[in-house]
Amino acid sequence: MQKSKKTLNKKSLNLQQFKAILKKDLSLLFRKKIAFFIFGGPFLLMFFMFILPTLFSTSTTLNLLIYNEDQGYMEQNIGNQIVLLLSQYYSSNDSHVSVILVDNYSAILKTEDLGLYIPSNFSTLAFTSSPSLYVVDTQQTISSQTQISIIYNICQKVMTSAIANRTIPDIQTVQVSPTSGTGEQSLSVKASIIAYPLGYMIFLLIALNSSSNSLIGFAREKRMRTMEIMLAYTINHRSLIISKVITGVVASVGSTLSYFLGIGAATLVINRNSDTNFFNIFSLNFKLLGFWDVLLVILSVIIALFLSTLMTMAVDCNLTREASERLSPLISIGFSFFFYFLIIVNPFAFSTALIINPFYWPYRLVLLVVSKKFTFEVAIYIVEIISLTLILVYLATKGIEKEKNLYLE
Amino acid sequence: MTYMIKTLNLTKSFKEKVAVNKVNLLVPKGSIFALLGPNGAGKTTTIRLLLGLLKPDYGEIEINNINVVAQPKEIRGKIALLPQISAAYHDLTPMQNIKFILELNNIHFDDVKNELNYYLRRLDITADLLLKPFSKLSGGEQRAISFIMTIILNKDFLILDEPTSGLDISRGKYVREIILDLAKKGKTILLSSHIISDLEELAEYCGIMKNGFLTFQDKKEKLIEKYASSTENFEEAIIQAFRAPINGD
């Protein structure tokens, strides 16, 4: 009886201590300088990234005229796929760009804005040599050039995907050539809409948050010499880790929302007269995607940021103060850098270099889930994310008491 | 005599260097015990071993009947620590730091409010200082706040590493007075200091460490008797004790 009372007291003391530590960590997170970096940084960055180009360009609507003459090749009509995908990117409600399909080439030439001509042999040449797109840009502004580059990227992506997914006919029944890996066609249009902005978001927010993580992590505690006090007074050292994890999650959620708000605010300022564009931010057409898909996108960014926080913490706990201060932001940034520069080439890429990258897991997971592909692959990513979380928490807990990490510079 | 600290053959090495070598420390309950030694003698390592922050390679530590080596978790939160360098959250105000350390030790602010006000007044910490970020305070003010953060916890055993370092004459005097008051209340204090006036006024027992060995431990008077030429010269006794060869040297 006495023993159980003692255990209960210990539990309640542990809980009390945990509450105090969490309150302190959150309080440190909301200090002016740190909050400015973590919550203000993404907002300001995205706000100005969107606002600044508009200072150099007109706010008039761009009309994109498309004439598709492509006749297809081997049951593939890449021109049609491009038109379909373009219409997904530039929705009919978009007051910034309107996509108009025309039925003759001379209309393209007469355009006063942007024109895109897909010639009749486009598919054929895509499979045999280099196809050509005919682009007309009468405005020659930053805004119109940006639109042209987006159009070009979309066309390039559709073409690459079409070639990668062609079916090679069997010559003999003895040996069957393997089909290309799961490509764009196996994922939904929604996944293709999400892919680029999501990859960019994960990369940018991790790069921004990595340095901020060291402000709220153990490296700073070591620098302020509070680590020794915390270890001497805290009964269960795991409380220190869990509190930092929760603080990291709060910071991650805050940064992600701040990122969206920054884009949203800039979009509102740019399109003051439009009532729809707040939902068309950074090529993520929120109305087209729907609430749950957007929520999944936000969740995957938060998971990536959460993993980045845990990585920082595990490094902080297992290396000396100086080493951890220098290395921990670099590790996260390094992983996010490799992730982004692999998916920017092909957002549906599936390679060993990507599979071992933790930031690829939430990204790929969302692409699969929005495509409603609940395969074994989904389960693997979920297991990987949970396992990595547990491993990093274990490493942090084990490392926190290592004497060399506490007392060596 | 009952002891707050008992160590038996306490040994800790870092690579080749033996920082603490077969130390048998005995600190009587309710005493002020000055742990002295030249730089690198092993005092800080000994303190970290007592706190359970380092694991000994060999030996036993018993603090207030708790076996620290076998049950390191049991000792956590039972010793008040004032580290050599003021440890507080620089972005928080002194008041937030104090409140945090109280909450961490499950002490209600209202229960120690009067005591806290008394210490703050005594060490000349004004209300406006309490509301500034800790980083904006002078070194002496930071040290005084750190000292208050240690003693306000009302623990039976306190480890004070250089408590008056960086303090002005007036604050230094009051800190010494407070330490003596705490000892009168029955608290056990392990003191580490290089300031001779602190040691002369406060130390009841002395322990001398050199190259990881505990070369002497007894009452202050015995130290003077053994090492000094006159009974008045405590400083000389300490210097001679530091220079004395270790058995086997």
TrEMBL record, chain A:
GO cellular component: membrane
Family annotation (Pfam families): ABC2_membrane_3
GO MF annotation, one: ABC-type transporter activity
Annotated ranges, domain ABC-2 type transporter transmembrane: 33-395
Superkingdom in the source lineage: Archaea
Organism: Candidatus Heimdallarchaeum endolithica
Primary localisation category: membrane
Bilayer-crossing regions: 34-56, 198-219, 240-270, 290-315, 327-356, 376-396
Name of the protein: ABC transporter permease
UniProt topology in membrane: Multi-pass membrane protein
Compartments in which it is found: Membrane
Keywords carried by this UniProt record: Membrane, Transmembrane, Transmembrane helix
Lineage: Archaea, Promethearchaeati, Candidatus Heimdallarchaeota, Candidatus Heimdallarchaeia (ex Rinke et al. 2021) (nom. nud.), Candidatus Heimdallarchaeales
Automatic annotation (TrEMBL), chain B:
Keyword Transport: yes
Gene Ontology molecular-function annotations: ATP binding; ATP hydrolysis activity
Keywords of the record: ATP-binding, Nucleotide-binding, Transport
UniProt cross-references to InterPro entries, sorted A to Z: AAA+_ATPase (IPR003593), ABC_transporter-like_ATP-bd (IPR003439), ABC_transporter-like_CS (IPR017871), ABC_transporter_ATP-binding (IPR050763), P-loop_NTPase (IPR027417)
ABC transporter domain location: 5-236
Pfam families, sorted: ABC_tran (PF00005)
Family: Belongs to the ABC transporter superfamily.
Descriptive protein name: ABC transporter ATP-binding protein
Organism this protein belongs to: Candidatus Heimdallarchaeum endolithica
